Protein 1
Amino acid sequence: MRRFRYYAPNSLAEASRLLRELGETASLFAGGTDLLVEIREELRTCAHVIDIKKIPDLHELSFDEERGLRVGAQTTAREIEISPVVRTRYPNLASAVAALGSIQVRNRATLVGNICRASPSADTLPPLIADGAVLTIWSEDGERSLPIERFFVGPGRTVLARGEIVAGVTIPPPRPASARIYIKHGRRKAMELATVGVAVSVDRHAGACADVRIALGAVAPTPIRALRAEAALRGNRVTPRLIAEAAEIAMSEATPISNVRASAGYRREMVGVLTRRALEAVTGAPQ
Amino acid sequence: MTRDLSITINGEEREFAVAEFRSLLDALRNEIGLTGTKKGCDVGDCGACTVILNGKPVNACLVLAVEADGGAVETIEGLQAAPDKPSPLQESFMVHGGAQCGFCTPGVIMMAKALLDDNPEPSEHDIRFALAGNICRCTGYTKIFDAVRAAADEMRKAPAP
Amino acid sequence: MNIGLSPAAWKRADADLTIVGRSVKRTDTLEKVTGQARYAGDLALPGMLHGKIKRSTIAHALIKRIDASKALALKGVKAVLTHENVPRVLHYGSPHPRSASVTKDQYILDRKVRYWGEGVAAVAAISEEIAEEALALIEVEYEPLPAVFTLEEAMAEGAPQIHDNGLSGNNVLPTVVVTRGDVEKGFAEADLILEGEYHLGRPTPAYMEPNVCVCRWDGNGKLTVWSSTQTAFMVRGALSEVLGVPLNKVRVIVDHMGGGFGAKQDLFQHEFLCALLARNTARPVRMEFSRKETFLGGRSRHPGVVWLKQGFSKSGAITARQARLTLNSGAYGSHGPGVTNVGTAALTSLYRCENVDLVGRCVYTNSPIAGAFRGYGVVQTYYALDLQMDEAAERLGFDPAEFRLMNAVREGDIAPSNHPIVGHGLEDCIRRGMAETDWPRMRKRARQDGVKRRGWGVGCEMHGSSAYPGIKEQGNAVVKMNEDGTVTLLTGTAGLGTGAHTALSQIVAEEIGVPFESVSVVQGDTDVVPWDIGAFASHTTYMGGRAAQIAAAEVKRQVLDHVAPKLGARPEDCVIRDGIILAVGTNRSISLREAVAPAKGMPAAQLIGVGTYSPRKSYSFAAHFVEVEVDTETGEIAVTQVVPVHEIGRVIHPIAAQGQIEGGIQQGIGHTLSEDYQIDLKTGRSLNPSFVDYKMPLAMDMPPIRTIILETAPDPGGPYGAKGVGEDPIIAIGPAIANAVADAIGVRFRHYPITPEQVRAALRDKKSGAE
């Protein structure tokens, strides 16, 4: 089914009403870089496309030291990629959005769309999780906030109820002496879906790891935290040996599958390599 | 359902009706008759349909025609300096062997134009990074990079009036 | 003409060339860079319908029932075709005339399905969307048959027979046997014997323009087909034969086409279906594959296995070579016979060996169809040969490039086509590459033991221009001089995008003595241009160019016969330079324009030359030198630089020739490291029919390439000594990469593509073996 009806509501309320009234075959449309592909490849039955780009006030991209980075539902990956503040304060997110498709795609694709698509391999999710991003979810009953790592249920599935719309995402301000990185592994340098993605954000204190968050992509039904690896690091002095141990633990926390892109075993092995490399990079440990 | 649209295409305001589910790519090719923009995959993977929409390069296959209503689209057909005079970028692709079968060429050139509009002095990496989403299966890219680099040099020497 | 000149005369002729050898502005590219170039899918005719193909979701089955009634009832649907209402004519999927290169094993639509994704029905509707919706409404009930996907399964005792009227045992062709000398004696004399199995992946050409055609019947029962094909006259022949229409009632037009790389020599069901839908509806129909369909219904390189055993003497000579090539043809024969023959015969050469025993087989399976693809069997067998050469060099203690030089095919050796080799092309390439890369120093530097390790490798190849002796080819050209002195070349050879038409124009301009800009080309219309076998086998410039040269020489003769008396000279004492006719040794001259201008409105003379050329064969050569970097922790292999050295005789257009080489290298890097079209080995379902998962190296991935072209062994059969270059670059790059990986990490892989996972596994095995 390639024919569909197109709606361009002027408010979140109207968009939400359409979602509720049109039911299962209605989809929100922001960048469309996944939605239109899924429709064309018959991966999704979609009779109604609800374009949210006419809704005012969803195009925010702002930063303040208090609240951090705020990104609206219409803000494109490319806008984030070239934003000086994102590049300096959130290099992990900058490299994740820059790894998403091509410039042509990123001029359309939105960060919030990438989140809502809930692909286990989505590049932006590990850094957002590692940085503790919070979603703003709109419904007719009002707004609610949800930490992003509680958003995903399975591949393509989220906790959103029908009629709920993610209006934006907020990433807390980087703490002093913190560092962050996202490393993507794929067969090509661009136009790639991650076979494994690893994000590490760390708060350092006097040679020790005060706090750390490790998020893994493409190795489970949803992006996950490597909680036990984090625990092994937290509060401890960072040594190559500790990093190797943490990487080893992260491998055991991954539950990857085998498909045409990579085998489960190789993905798990790469979790170890990439986690170690990411930890080395953010802790300044000798390589 | 069809929609009446008004889109400025290559500087000319065009009014036409199009089915609401139709892509900008299909509208350009089939409704407007501008077939220079190519369909290589129809899912945003190849860049053959790259056009500049409201100043930004996009894959026309991943844009609905209705979304471009009231906007401005530049395609390969609008790039020439005059009807019988290719732009310096187009000329450079001819001279440096940047086009072989030519199917990816319009998209590559539009992406290169977007790059040079933003960044008149691109590094080798900048050129590769900008063209990351344009698949060429004939040239091995070497001659495309040559063409873009030479065009940038040429255009800096003699900036457009 | 400069044909058959001595080397000294070649040199003198060189100095006289003014157009050949220059990178003139390609005649076809202005249209391409401005978006004006028309490809088949750009055509829109009034009242045109859109055709779509329904494809099977099972790999091997009989169609028990097919019901199109619901599809026909959908508003906007104009016609549906199934095996029940199309002509049942067995045809050649790749219709090369008078050749044993192809098989006759296809129907337009059959009641039997032989691979997952085969067309089982077709629809014409007023829009693409409606046509697609109609496909979903066609009900097909299958009776599944046991399916076989691998060579082992297809060749096993009691395996299901995929074709009823083929050879037994799912063989596409009778076993190919090539023997020279006495291998038993050769092995007995050997000091070292190496033996290995080399496994070949399934790369596909992945040309940018999906398969497409537009068909229209006029009121006189004439069919016009605009198609993206390398072989317009072959498509015309097939349509004529299968639809029962005489050749003068079928016209095939190919203006520009978006790449083919060999695969677009075949027919892809859609030409027939589109023509029939157009006839049934009395409206033009366009049928355009999606990218996914271009994978599903397209053609790949033949996967398979090469078993290779060679004997070597301590002094570095090859004493015996024995090989068994087994190729997986997929569901239909396509070019299986040609590819098997060429690939097998190629093993008689490249590296000298007097005792060879080669056997080639090609087997049907329920897999996607393998067909013609740049490198045509030689990619497969030379990969095995050149990997084993590298191993032998190491075992015998020779430098790998020196070892190749010692064994390189020499002038006068008998080539796979049974012709003597002309010149020292391969030796020249190896020597030049060694000098350019500072090879001895590169190879001797200390082996690294860090995480990322670099290595250098070399791979060689030779490849024939033209498909002779497999196909007796013929190129034709017509050259007309217009009454203002300009020239029109009519050629049947297709414009694949290689710049061949520019090369042909250069040859014509050079031969007559007019400026390049004075020559224009008419091509791609079977009603207008002389018959042509098609653009393939690296022969377009070699064969089509030579035919154009012959035609141009004839026009020049006519012009001089006509004009010489006016200059008071004999024709043989006149020359044409840059459009001016000079009587040599006098100060008398006249411009061509003046000489042939109309008098009283009548052209001065009818000036038309016809050239026909049946080539034998020439060989081009290459040695590729490659550096790789291997990340030993992730297993990723990056090609960091390539120095390809090619000997291709006279270069007509340097930039176009370099472009062929660099493009072939891109495809070859892909084949060797990342490209593999995969199917599920339980169901035959395609696993990666998209550009996301079929991984070609792109702009960010390509290494710097420093292309070097040598002209040291021009061929007397080609125009001005030119030889082919189209296929060569894809052959040498693969073994060069694999050998560089061996240099970097000490692991010899015997297959392609070499994936990061396999690198990791091999390094683990190596480590545990060492412990």
Protein 2
Amino acid sequence: MSSAITLLLTVLAQIAPSLGVSSSITAIINTLVELIPILVKEFQDLVPLVKNIVDALRDNKTITDQQLQDLDALEEKIDAEFEAAAAMPDSDGMAQ
Amino acid sequence: MKKLLLIATLALSLGGCAGLQSFYNVTTSAVNGASPTAIYVARNSFDAVEVTATNYIVYCKVHPSTPGCSKTAIAKLIPAVRSGRIARTNLVQWQKQNPPGTWGPIGMYNTLTTATATLQQISAQYNISGVAK
């Protein structure tokens, strides 16, 4: 499930520069809003990121300093958690 | 739900190819770069893939014998995430050195979205999200 979501986000990132047609933005927002209840249940970690995208596309205006600061803080946490995971010792028994 | 996601993904892909293409050509030129919204979306998209990678690595290191856990996948994920993070950091630094609302360099933007796509490909190849959580 989350692979489909991350794929969706990847596609969104690729087409974001071309988002100038309001009907397209509305369709994307509606799709993402439909996903949120499922994300809340199964993939809580991804919810803030999807919400950020929804907010950015819904407002369709300049990203605020506060939004950037919040994302900076979130990314700091995400990066720290990744590095902590990468530093965990390997266990025996994992397939190649 | 999987059908909905598939349809949504296909719709977005098709939308990107059809009516939006001409607008894309205008808004992603070397002159115009990428809008602040596009950069913001790209950052969040990369972060989402990084979170998925983190969950996979943690789960597989704690439960190494779980089917789908792969040392090779982890070995590919770690440098790919770090490489993407460099691209994201470069873009963020560029934004901080320029006035708010300035459109970013398309090259840096493309580097970040390519890194996200690379991670997505690794995720799909090893069914990473099917194992994590």
